[in-house]
Write a structure and sequence with these properties.
The model has no long low-confidence stretch (mean pLDDT 87). Strands 2-5-1-6 form a four-stranded antiparallel β-sheet, with no helix packed on it. It contains two helices and six strands. A hairpin with a 2-residue loop joins strand 3 and strand 4 (46-49). Helix 1 runs antiparallel to helix 2 (72-83). The radius of gyration is 15 Å and the shape is globular. It has helices at residues 18-27, 72-83, and strands at 4-14, 34-38, 40-43, 46-49, 60-67, 88-97. It starts with a strand and ends in a 6-residue tail after the last strand. It is an alpha+beta fold.
Amino acid sequence: MDMHPKKRIEIIVEAPAIHRLTAALETAGVTGYSILPVLAGRGSTGSWTRDGLVGGAGQMVMLICITDAGRVEAILADVMRLLSRQIGIVTVGDVAVVRGERF
């Protein structure tokens, strides 16, 4: 089976910022992504949970996209302009995909 090397970008951000984030990604040419709820976590300010939160304020989501390595810097430049004013975590890792033409 042929495997194709790609980069996986994961971004955790406050839920109200997700529409601006997806717009920035689409402007940068990202053609696909998935968004998942983040239920709880722990960071430099301690533990948190979305239990008891009403509405989107204070809730966190994770966006995942897969792209070619050569596009990562341009994508992250747009993302970091947005996140400079938001709470957010960005990670980039190596992955291998089976259907490389889809990314």
